Records
---
Amino acid sequence: MKGCHSTMQLKSKNIFLLLTILMSALYVWPELNFQDLLSQGDHGRDLYAFDAVTHGKLPYKDFWWVYGPIMPYYYGLFFKIFGVHITSVLLGRALLVVLCSAFFYLSAACLMPPGLAFLGAAWFTQSRQEFFFTYNHIGGIAAELIIGWCLLSYIRMGAMRHLWIALVAGFVLGLVKINFGLAGLAGIVLGVLFIDYSQKRPFSDQKKKLYLCAAGLIPLVLGSIYWLLLKDLPLYAIRQCMPYFGTDQPYHASPLMVIPYYFTQHWLTLTHFIRVWLPVYSIRLPVGIIFTLILHGCTLLATYLLITKRLEKQYRQDILLALAVIGIFFVFYFHEFLVSGVWYRNYWSLPFLDLFHFVMIAVAFTFIPKFLRVFIRIFLGGLIAFLMILHIYTIQNQKEPSHYLSMDRGQIYVGNEPQWTDTVNRVTDFLNTNLKKDDLFFALPYDCLYYYLTGKTSPTRQLIFFDHIKIPQAQEISVIRELEKNKIGFVLMSTRIISDEIGLGIFGRTYCPLLGQFVHDNFTPIVRQGGDWTQPPGWANNHGVIILKKIEFEWRGRRDLNSRSSA
């Protein structure tokens, strides 16, 4: 009977794993040709990098890149297989979202019934806060969750294979973002030491090899890879690509201020009302408050059960070990937010916060009456289904012509304002129509999206020009030489050349005075004030463009953005 029960459990676990994959695939399906916000800077940099590596260019060395080197090759593979369209990148991102959901479920299923683990994975999938500014970090979240699953599986099974898989995932995480890779490896070492000490497992030769790899060999290999890619660059360029020292980052905060801010924001998130539109009127439902009561009620009850030892001994020990491992990774992945106060940087730790919440719900379920367990499952399931339908409905409503990037390398709908979309379409069409095959242009201050959309190579290695990049005079001279060497006839400048946003500044005045003077002396406008030049420039809105040509460059093309070619 025990073998039959184990077989049924495995079958149930596999069924819910399949349901998790199907659920997450349904969630990301509308996003295969839609992106909520597309920025001409950050997303443009990503897209340019993904395309560049398919032509043999190297991150850092051949173009400015600020994360680990692996993700450009991952997305570049999708360009190779499915074509150079933003939809190819969105497909690659969607597969990683599905992978994250699957490993969140597998992690949760180590500690709770498959049905509840499925609800946890569904909640994580639809409520996770997205790294809205880059395609890079979702690869890191997938690696984090694989590491978490491996250590939680090790608690139950004690199999070394899970730890070796965790090390591989830690290595990949280091190639996505170096500081999180090192944090993940440290978490593996500390987690395994704590588990082995608690479960009185011997310190074997296999463990010695594991610790040697995690604390020595893998960091050494990671360091070697980064060194090979960075070694030919001057120190200022290395610091621009690896902004981990001194004042390289424009945002700094004290942990004493960040921690209260963190709890305040979470409280506001959990207690918000959801507005529902009915055929006649709209109503506000306090689902956030209900969810908060369930969440914190279960957490308090679970804490009481664990402290008073009212749970079966082995189960209690496994849960405490699991909570310790979850807590270790949560704290380690919290470090960027703790020293910056930039909200999106706490997203690295959120998968483990969600996992903690559902572990506490699972523990509480061992004590509360059946009718209450049924109510909580129905409420969570209904809330998840409602939010998923709302997600799909919201996206479908934005798939209109005014939100469509029509060029060959675009072919997606965006959530940006229609004026932004129209400006990007017109400017890209203008460049594609009027620039000859071998003509290059220089985009300032951070508008790499146009390099990607036109299929043109940047004339300089440097892709970004802002105050916080701290471009020294020697680099300005180097950029000017690159422009002259590549015989640049055109300069594209967006409204972000004049910005009061923290760390951006005014081109030619607060940063890059030599480069600003070079553009002023050698180029003259041919297209004036395309897009929005009346509002303060935004990250992905209020976007205006001016195009200049070199003074002695013969020009017989269009001088406006009001007409579109039929191409």
Note: The first helix runs from residue 2 to 28.
---
Amino acid sequence: MEQDDERGEVGHEVVGKRRSSALSLLVLALSCLLLGVATGTARAGPNLFVGVDEDALKSHPQQAVEIARDLGMSAFRITLSWNRGKTTLTTTDRLQLQTAVYGRAEMRIVLAVYGPLAPVTAPLRDEYCTYVRNVLNEFPQINDVVIWNEPNLSYWLPQFNPDGTSAAPAAYEALLAHCYDVLHAARPTINVIAPATSLWGNDNPLAVSNVSHSPVNFIREMGAAYRASGRDRPIFDTFGHHPHPGDASERPWKVHPGTQISEGDLNKLIQVLRDEFLGTAQPVPGNGLSIWYLEDGYQTTIDQAKLPFYSGYENWPHTIPDYAGGEPDWPPPSADSPAPDQWTQIIDAVRLAYCQPYVGAYFNFLLWDESSLRGWQSGMLWADGTPKDSYPAFKKVIHEVDEGKVDCAHLKGGPVSPTPPSAVSAGAGTRGGPSGTQRARLRYTGTRIGAFGFVKLRARLTRAADGRPIAGRLVVFKIAATRIKARSNKRGVVKAAVGLPLSPGRGHLDVRFAGDSVFRPAWARIVLNVLNSPASVRSEGFLRLPGGRRTSFRILSHGRRVQGAFRFRSHSIRLEVARLDALGVGPGGRSAWFAGRGKRGQAFFVYVRKRRQGGANFQVWVSGTRRNGHGRVVAGRVLIHRVG
């Protein structure tokens, strides 16, 4: 994030920016914080999940996750640096990602990939997108990826051509288009998040510093490049934005004139997205597009006792105390009044995001403060790892979100309007859009409680008036990071193939029909519980597959813990289990999935099915790639049965 040059040049590098001395003190202070840590996994409310931007997950994962769990957060955004010529992970990056990802099944990992050189040519775009694809293939647990960071600022150069015309938005659109195709070809359910724009920019190619685009004009130019390309596919699945305030004391609901987009300017953001993309293949808010606040935060003044853990000089205007008594919810203060403290700001900001239409996520920038005062001090903990006095406020408001207890009718800034008034007319303009007049009904009829590997996603789309089926419409099933698309048949039935199994756990499954010129949008939500099976899957001796491949396995589960052994060997890979995470046994005990991680860090999924004539079918995926196709076991024996 960078500050507009009208306020003076202030730069905050994100790639690789992590504190060192502060983290060395973390373990000492952590025990004070975690005496009351809850071990359960929080689930977000119907409109929002809350996460945190924190690269320390790659170096101090246990502490970071324990704090996030205690707060009720359910996601981390971490960063990964890319450089020219890089198409695969370095050993260091691989080890750091393994540290961040392993054992984090309950935490959603959002990965932002960017670097010092913008990929502005076709060869560089291909290198970058190939790199991202290879990372996600190696880490199938990650399904949310942010393409670059704040490309409307100096993270992307050049911003303008030598003649002063806009350059960055069109070049970035070309990168998005290529990455979208590369990533969706590798994994159709990937969630491509873009553009992760900053809240401001000066739109001045001759500025003394911080030559940049405002988010409004960046989106407009990006949309113009998209339409000019004639593309008939989207370029992103989720719209990411950084709606930081103008300064730490600024109220979250404050509306700004001009082209700045902070949290209170959501209507402005919705309007420009609809203006530029409505009627194209790119979904917009109200037609299937979710908006994620990928960075937000309120920088605090440093307590006198904590100053030894910080260095340098503060460069951000109007920092606020972490806690100065808070503020009552009533009477509501003016949008132009300064907020008293971080306690007040975080409660108001998260409540507002929860109530805003189309907003699906809120990420606070950092868990721990950075020790350099030129960095960011918007965390819930001081640089020495001890909690700020605002820590309970974070916990309180996330609990409200989790329990659906935010009162959207009594926000301090007033109720949120469901859609910008001018956007309604835009939806009926010449670019078309979902202006249907008939109500549709979407009812989920598939699995609600199912074994790992054997969940069936199924729904029925009908007219609300008479129950007649609606055929040929696209419906999206979404659970956690997995998105699956399917069309309704002539009976209105929509069946979706899950592909690789959903991870065990309890979560919300959303089923959405975006609407069209005839029918209005429809939506359903259910709780889907994916379980390990109380079962065992065994092989007697080695199983020999075509092509000289050999495998053996013995997997046991009692519904929660999965244990056992697994080996797979071929000419190209040797896989031996280090940890087993999941087991599911199908109806009749003739088929099973199991999953885990190999001793070299590879994630694997295995499917085995007993054949009635003897033998078995056997398939294995390693790091998201199928390794042996539809191999048939030609020797050996498989036993599958339930044990409870």
Note: The longest strand covers residues 574-585.
---
Amino acid sequence: MPTDPSGAGKLIPFAHPEALTDSEKLLAAYFDSSTVGLCILDSELRYLAINNRLAELNGIPAPDHLGKTVREVLGDFANVAEPELQRVLSTGEPVVSFEVSAVLPTRTEARHWMAHSFPIKDATGTVARIGVVVVETTAPVGLQQSVKDLSGKLRKEMDRLQMLLDVSTIMASNWDLQQVFPRISARIRRVLLQEYAGFELRDANTGLLIRQVEDFPLGKGLLSSLPISPDNSPGGLALRERTPLIFSKDQMLDFRADIARTFVAEGFQSLCCLPLFRPNTTLGVLVLGSTRPDAFQPEDLTLLNQVAAQFAVALENNRAAVEIEVLKQRLSQERMYLEGEIRSEGLFAEIIGDSPALRQVLDQVMTVATSDATVLVLGETGTGKELIARAIHRLSRRKDGSFIKVNCAAIPTGLLESELFGHEKGAFTGAISQKIGRMELAHGGTLFLDEVGEIPLELQPKLLRVLQDQEFERLGSNRTIKVNLRLVAATNRDLAKGMAEHQFRSDLFYRLSVFPIRVPPLRERREDIPVLVRYFVRKFAPRMDRHIEAVPSETMKVLTAWSWPGNVRELENLMERSVILSEGNALRVPLSELRRETPVPVPPPDHTLDNAEREHIIRVLRETGGLLSGPDGAAHRLGLKRTTLQSKMQRLKITRRDYMGS
């Protein structure tokens, strides 16, 4: 329901917008016009709605019209108006441009009007109401000339009204203004004849104006897409003064901004800038340009202000829709990632075993979990590195946040950066929508990078930046995103060898290995094998509808002696297969799949982190000929200070003989 434009705050009754006919929508869209009087009458010629301009012409406040007849308001003037209005009711045809000159009851001097009335039909096609458009003339004119002049004037106003309604309909159908803007511009061009239309949005971080889209069929291609400084540009001035502004060619040349001179180079003689505002928010500016001098007049600003207001609402709605979609996408992905998260009683309910080697690992987990230190979990495939990472998360202060897992080896190299950091729509071929990266999903929680040694070299500096500064940019965006996450990484690769082969950055290695935890292979904790066998049998037997009560001692002896190159995962798979094969109460293990002779356990090589670091430092010292400092020295190559390198050499007992051979 439109408000009284006088500012008194009184409401002028109108039907609900969805119930209005096209004719009523036309009137409603232009109800606050300061130049054209508008009203709607019922079948008894009583006022149902009236705008402030017509009320002013009648000399009576708008609310005092409502419910009264034309005769009660206009007196003897109704003798002229009523026959024309009755003709509309009886014929259902409009009456175009009839002239009236009379002295109203509220006036002492004669007034001269030209009017246009048209029928408003209900759903059955019956004329139920009449719409009236009135324009005051300065003096009476001949009827023939009146019809000609007023028809042109009314047609112009009606075209403007229809344009406003069409623009509103287009924006209501699609809030993505980048898609529908050419249609909107084409519709405005039919009324204002402008050659150029575009809109610029204000970047919240930089304050610069960023051109989003433009419609300029006859352009010379001089306009660039570079950000526009609002300090000395036409659009920036309109934003600062919070009012629409019209500029001539000479006025455009007064601005130092390149955009103003580019407009002139494109042949613009006049420019109109309309600021786009919403409550407490500056959105940007709508810009119209023409090669004709004085193409935009002050009386056009009423119409354009309404276009700009609708534009601002559509922009805000679109932003809200995008934010909602991003939140929905993030919630969906969080649920998807969290579906695999196991919730168990106890601190280490999923980690089975009580061997000294395993207890040492769990003690390390208890020690580091309460801090936010980066943890590097080392171990062979199948040793349970992910379970260790989940235990660290559950024992940390971030346990209520998300635990996001990324298997760096399972994601193609070309997609890994997008998975980690996300991308913007259009960042690359196939990027049809914005994607939230797993770094953002892990905000407030823990990010677990499994097989971190598989991260390509060109992506490692970006990960290093996240570790150091907790910030990054999505692909296709220059906006920095801050995150608060805890990183746990795992690998079964020899990172020292990767550093020596220049496949893994040493500075990233040192950032990842703040607190290394080595998970022992199953052959180093054989006393846990019987416990694991019983656990897996109890896990799989109910699923397979088996009732297994015993494991033969000879079978357990063979299982305990086996070296288990696949570690716990290999044991789990064998137990599942064994339960399927077991038909009685005893577990039947296909021992033939194992080697007929139990291999003699081979002492494992020294894969401790200290040894890997020692070997890497020695290798770099050999390459530099023992030179420690300087641009070609070992400290520079390792990304360390000279004093730090010397301290590490002392701790790792590295002597000159180790790298110089004498």
Note: The radius of gyration is 40 Å.
